[in-house]
Design brief:
Radius of gyration: 30 Å
Order of helices and strands: HEHEHHEHEHEHHEHEEHEEHEEHH
Shape: elongated
Helix content: 25-40%
Oligomer: single chain
Strand content: 5-15%
Number of strands: 12
Length: 395
Amino acid sequence: RTSRTPSERREARKLFVYDLFVLYDLFVLSAVTLALANRRHRTMLVQRVLVCSQIPGLCAAVERAVTAAGGHVALQQRSPTELQRGGAWHDEWRRAQVVLCDPGIVAHMVDDAAELRWMQSTWAGVNTIFSSSCKRDYTLTRLGGCFGGQMAEYVLGYLIMLERRLLNAKSDQESKEWMPGTYKPTDPLGPRPFNTLTLGLLGCGDIGSKIAEAGKGLGMRVVVFRKTLQRTNLSVDLVTPSIELLLETSDYIVNILPSTPQTRGLLSGDVLRKCATRDASRRPAVFINVGRGDVVDEVSLVKALDAEWLSSAVLDVFEVEPLPSTSALWHHPKVLMTPHISAVSYADDVAELYARNLLIYYAQGKGQQEEEEENNGKDHDVTKLLYKIDWDKGY
């Protein structure tokens, strides 16, 4: 040391300080890397989900979606038979806290799920949960945001088919009849320009908005029935709390309402008589139901068709499903029906929404055990989950 010159000693001190800074930077980098690794490990531990669904490829789709969103999920798929009482995995169902399910196949078991905190439905409708279970101490979210396009296609398809009389064309083809006059405006039942017609919508959430857009795309006047008028961003011509006004003015009436105590039987009795008070030069309205079947009972609907208050009905949903073989609707000449398929759940749609909700639910990225220890078993924050069911409102 004594042999070094002052300049050499100054340089040595500089190198020593530099080395300290390098060591400090390496320490900080190692600490951050370790923290991120631990956080990732905790996230992997937390996201354990029980799946009970008949949707093909759902688990694979969920894994892809969650991984793409930067998370990880460990799925356990079980059949309803395995989870029900007496099943090999019934205890697993009783202990499950987070589940992804088709509500129709688990509704009868929900009351047995003692530790359930959150259920994500793979369907838009959760009526079976309300009717088959009394349990309400958990969060239920439905599938949403992906059915509007499908239902708009369904409604639009029937609008065009009925106005252009395409079913008649098939009948003419089978009987080898060449009858072009049937499909011209000169025929009393010939096609009408869509810009002269009114589309009436019972309800207008995210599904109804898509149907309204489709109707406006054809040039139709669109009228919406809503009890409350708080939403003002709808691209429609009129929003009214008067169902009578909608029935009197609409050429096509589309029900999209959920099943609630307020909507059940809304069109039952002689309510549809209002459709007959329109101008005599106009045809009776067509009723299209893609919402819930209990908005009108079968007797009332058949009466409206037989009395010509309605010209026809397109039904995708029914008061009782599957539709009993004794129903008068099966062979009614003015009824067209489909078996509740106006919109279906696709694995990728379910997975996309579920991945978003899963990451919201585990927003802090903590392990389940760690979370419970820190919060003394308190529930996760579920206020920001998408499409959360309001137990009081019923939807």
